[in-house]
Amino acid sequence: MVIPVTSFQQNCSLIWNPATMKGAVVDPGGDVPHILQAIKEQGVTVEKIVLTHGHIDHVGGAADLAEALKVPVEGPHEADRMLIERVKDQAVQFGLADVKPVEPDLWLVEGDKMEMAGRSFEVYHCPGHAPGHVVFFDRELRLAISGDVLFAGSVGRTDLPGGDHDQLIASIKEKLLPLGDDVSFLPGHGPASTFGHERQTNPFLK
Length: 206
Prior knowledge:
- This protein has seven helices and 13 strands.
- The chain has helices at residues 32-42, 56-59, 62-69, 81-85, 87-93, 165-176, 195-201; strands spanning 2-5, 10-17, 22-26, 45-50, 73-74, 113-116, 119-125, 134-138, 143-147, 150-151, 154-155, 184-187, 193-194.
- The strands form three sheets. Strands 6-7-8-9-12-13 form a six-stranded mixed beta sheet. The chain has a five-stranded mixed beta sheet with strand order 1-2-3-4-5, with helices on one face.
- It is globular and about 45 Å long.
């Protein structure tokens, strides 16, 4: 379930196992009361909060949500520590409400297996949009949660601190696309797509 949050309409995701109703929240960028209401309406027991990277529209609500739910925060890669520590400065920069920085309980690295909603997700470190950006991949479901690395018809911006366009394109072409054309992905903004469709039509990947 996608819960658009903040003025950036960021795709905060509520993911759960229908058999157990246990799940996780991915990238709670803000609007915490809205996220809590969705959790209540769906009847999900949230076990953890998961972060793809340290930009404010993805982590802005993580500290408050973790405190409200009494759950740990996992991710992103520690290369994003500086971004997360500067989240108050990010709030000022983008004209957003004051936020609390979050201290992840677990930093993730390439090759980790991360449990979420009773499923195992492989962790891929995909820098370029942010130095510590990670992507989560469920090999059995052929599903990736890509954050702001790849979008339908576009790619993540690289003009923010720590951004590197060549590195971003390399992350997509060397780590994501080889997972298979049939892989569906949910990006940090906008609609879902497949790696195959983006490989064939995305102008940034030509």
